[in-house]
Amino acid sequence: MRTAGDEQVTFEKLEKDMLKGQKLQGVLTSDEVMEILHARGWELEFPLFTTINRIIHGEVPPNMILRYRVACSMPSIPPARRVVNDYY
Protein backbone atom coordinates (compact mmCIF):
# COMPACT_ATOMS: atom_id res chain seq x y z
CA MET A 1 0.00 0.00 0.00
CA ARG A 2 1.23 3.49 -0.72
CA THR A 3 -0.05 6.85 0.38
CA ALA A 4 -1.29 9.46 -2.07
CA GLY A 5 -1.63 12.59 -0.01
CA ASP A 6 -3.91 11.62 2.85
CA GLU A 7 -5.42 8.68 0.97
CA GLN A 8 -4.05 5.15 1.35
CA VAL A 9 -4.01 3.30 -1.95
CA THR A 10 -4.45 -0.48 -1.96
CA PHE A 11 -3.44 -2.92 -4.67
CA GLU A 12 -7.16 -3.37 -5.30
CA LYS A 13 -7.61 0.35 -5.99
CA LEU A 14 -4.52 0.47 -8.21
CA GLU A 15 -5.87 -2.46 -10.22
CA LYS A 16 -9.22 -0.76 -10.63
CA ASP A 17 -7.84 2.67 -11.52
CA MET A 18 -4.75 1.83 -13.53
CA LEU A 19 -5.38 -1.65 -14.90
CA LYS A 20 -9.14 -1.38 -15.42
CA GLY A 21 -9.76 -4.32 -13.09
CA GLN A 22 -6.99 -6.63 -14.34
CA LYS A 23 -5.03 -8.35 -11.59
CA LEU A 24 -1.39 -7.62 -10.77
CA GLN A 25 0.19 -10.87 -11.89
CA GLY A 26 3.32 -10.34 -9.81
CA VAL A 27 1.33 -10.35 -6.58
CA LEU A 28 -0.56 -13.52 -7.49
CA THR A 29 2.63 -15.25 -8.63
CA SER A 30 4.44 -14.20 -5.45
CA ASP A 31 1.73 -15.82 -3.33
CA GLU A 32 1.87 -19.04 -5.34
CA VAL A 33 5.66 -19.27 -5.02
CA MET A 34 5.46 -18.52 -1.29
CA GLU A 35 3.07 -21.43 -0.83
CA ILE A 36 5.76 -23.73 -2.23
CA LEU A 37 8.57 -22.14 -0.21
CA HIS A 38 6.52 -22.37 2.97
CA ALA A 39 5.50 -25.98 2.35
CA ARG A 40 9.15 -26.93 1.93
CA GLY A 41 10.47 -24.73 4.73
CA TRP A 42 12.61 -22.70 2.31
CA GLU A 43 11.59 -19.16 3.31
CA LEU A 44 15.01 -18.33 4.78
CA GLU A 45 16.82 -19.84 1.79
CA PHE A 46 15.08 -17.24 -0.42
CA PRO A 47 15.26 -14.13 1.80
CA LEU A 48 14.73 -11.50 -0.91
CA PHE A 49 11.66 -13.24 -2.29
CA THR A 50 10.28 -13.84 1.21
CA THR A 51 10.80 -10.19 2.15
CA ILE A 52 9.09 -8.91 -0.99
CA ASN A 53 6.08 -11.12 -0.30
CA ARG A 54 5.96 -9.93 3.31
CA ILE A 55 6.07 -6.30 2.12
CA ILE A 56 3.21 -6.97 -0.31
CA HIS A 57 1.07 -8.21 2.58
CA GLY A 58 2.06 -5.44 5.01
CA GLU A 59 3.94 -7.79 7.34
CA VAL A 60 7.13 -5.71 7.24
CA PRO A 61 7.60 -2.09 6.17
CA PRO A 62 8.74 -1.39 2.57
CA ASN A 63 12.06 0.09 3.67
CA MET A 64 13.10 -3.40 4.82
CA ILE A 65 13.78 -4.33 1.20
CA LEU A 66 17.26 -2.89 1.81
CA ARG A 67 17.74 -5.26 4.75
CA TYR A 68 16.02 -8.28 3.25
CA ARG A 69 18.20 -10.83 5.04
CA VAL A 70 16.98 -9.43 8.36
CA ALA A 71 13.40 -8.79 7.19
CA CYS A 72 12.71 -12.35 6.09
CA SER A 73 13.10 -13.55 9.67
CA MET A 74 11.57 -10.55 11.50
CA PRO A 75 8.35 -11.01 13.43
CA SER A 76 5.33 -9.78 11.52
CA ILE A 77 3.68 -6.48 12.25
CA PRO A 78 0.71 -7.25 14.55
CA PRO A 79 -2.52 -7.58 12.52
CA ALA A 80 -4.05 -4.56 14.27
CA ARG A 81 -1.21 -2.34 12.94
CA ARG A 82 -0.77 -4.12 9.61
CA VAL A 83 -1.62 -2.42 6.35
CA VAL A 84 -3.92 -4.78 4.50
CA ASN A 85 -3.52 -5.04 0.76
CA ASP A 86 -6.82 -6.40 -0.54
CA TYR A 87 -5.99 -7.36 -4.09
CA TYR A 88 -8.20 -10.39 -4.63
Keywords:
single chain, 88 residues, mainly alpha, two-stranded antiparallel ribbon, 7% strand, 6PGD_dom2, 6-PGluconate_DH-like_C_sf, G3P_DH_NAD-dep_C
Describe this structure in words.
It contains four helices and two strands, in the order ββαααα. The chain is mostly helical. β1 and β2 (7-9) form a beta hairpin. α2 (25-40) crosses α3. It starts with a strand and ends in a 17-residue tail after the last helix. The relative contact order is 0.18. Residues 84-88 have low confidence and may be disordered.
Can you lay out the helices and strands and say which pair or pack?
Blueprint: E1 2-4, E2 7-9, H1 11-18, H2 25-40, H3 47-56, H4 68-71
Antiparallel strand pairs: 1-2
Protein name: Glycerol-3-phosphate dehydrogenase NAD-dependent C-terminal domain-containing protein
Pfam family, one: NAD_Gly3P_dh_C
Keywords: NAD
Overall structural class, as computed from helix and strand content, comes to mainly alpha
Q: What percentage of residues falls in helices of 4 or more residues? A: 40-55%
Give me the side-by-side strand order of the main sheet: 1-2
Gross morphology: globular
Largest sheet: 2 strands, antiparallel
Task: Tell how many strands the DSSP assignment holds.
Answer: 2
How much β-strand is present in the residues? Answer: 5-15%
Taking all Cα atoms into account, the compactness measure Rg is 14 Å
What would you call the quaternary organization? single chain
Count of DSSP helices? 4
Intertermini distance:
14 Å
Protein name: Glycerol-3-phosphate dehydrogenase NAD-dependent C-terminal domain-containing protein
Pfam families: NAD_Gly3P_dh_C (PF07479)
InterPro entries: 6-PGluconate_DH-like_C_sf (IPR008927), 6PGD_dom2 (IPR013328), G3P_DH_NAD-dep_C (IPR006109)
Keywords: NAD
